[in-house]
Automatic annotation (TrEMBL):
Pfam family, one: DUF5641
Domain DUF5641 positions: 59-117
Coiled coil (UniProt feature): none
Protein name: DUF5641 domain-containing protein
Gene source species: Paramuricea clavata (Red gorgonian)
Length: 126
């Protein structure tokens, strides 16, 4: 039963999070498994590796995670804004007292700071 549940979980996590136009490049569609494991996967293989191989795998995994995080910020956050535009919703500036998410380059990814608007700035255009 456990292997059935793991198989279902893996298949569900292989479904795309966002729509990305394919222009023949090497980028693949962003999926939960890419964020979780650094690659799209279906089966887990038991592999015994030498220490050098494990170090190389760790470097590749770190790079894959960093790349996935950058793509998530670029594609998913953009898709949220795009969906508001497609649905003809006017994106309003936060009002005083609103809680907002401050997008940044924090060391611990996924821990963007929450903020509360206490003042409003109006940009003057010339």
């Amino acid at each position: 039963l456990e292997s059935v549940v793991l198989n279902i979980e893996s298949n569900m996590n292989n479904r795309p999070l966002t729509y990305v136009e394919c222009d023949g490049g090497k980028e693949q569609v962003l999926m939960p498994n890419i964020l979780i494991r650094g690659e799209n996967c279906y089966m887990f293989d038991d592999v015994e590796n030498e220490e050098d191989e494990i170090t190389k795998m760790q470097r590749r995994l770190r790079k894959a995670k960093d790349d996935a995080w950058k793509r998530w910020k670029r594609e998913y956050v953009h898709s949220l804004l795009e969906s508001q535009r497609v649905n003809n919703k006017v994106v309003e500036a936060p009002q005083i007292g609103d809680v907002v998410l401050v997008v940044g380059e924090e060391k611990n990814r996924g821990e963007w700071k929450k903020g509360k608007c206490f003042d409003k700035f109006v940009e003057k255009t010339v």
